């Protein structure tokens, strides 16, 4: 009987892991579609205003691809708030992903 309980628990853990990975993949895809849509349909009608290279939308796109939806969005929002008329224009790439 304990073997069956172990297998049920293992199955539950595997299913939760599968669901969490799928949620992350789906939310990443949705964010990438939204960012690409902004770059294609909205950005061309706005004057260039980003003070950094790569632009804020390119930075957000790369950050979400590299770090996933949560951490990538946080990096992009942090970068967006640094981009203002008082900041010095400069090259500011997405930080490399640290292997743990």
Helix-strand layout with pairing:
Elements: H1 2-42, E1 52-53, H2 56-67, H3 69-82, E2 90-91
Parallel strand pairs: 1-2
Mean pLDDT: 85
How many domains is the backbone divided into? 1
Radius of gyration, in Å, reads 19 Å
Helix/strand-derived class?
mainly alpha
For the biggest β-sheet, the strand order reads 1-2
Strand fraction equals under 5%
Helix content, binned percent = 55-70%
Sheet with the most strands, sense and barrel status? 2 strands, parallel
Number of strands: 2
Number of helices: 3
The stretches of 5 or more residues where confidence is low (pLDDT under 50) are 1-6
Give the SSE string: HEHHE
Rough outline: elongated
Distance between the first and last residues' Cα: 38 Å
What would you note in describing this structure?
With 100 residues, the protein is mostly helical. It has one domain. Helix 1 runs antiparallel to helix 2. Keywords: Cell inner membrane, Cell membrane, Membrane, Transmembrane, Transmembrane helix.
What's this, in brief?
With 100 residues, the chain is mainly alpha-helical. Helices cover 67% and strands 4% of the residues.
Keywords:
67% helix; disordered N terminus; 2 strands; mainly alpha; two-stranded parallel sheet; 100 residues; elongated
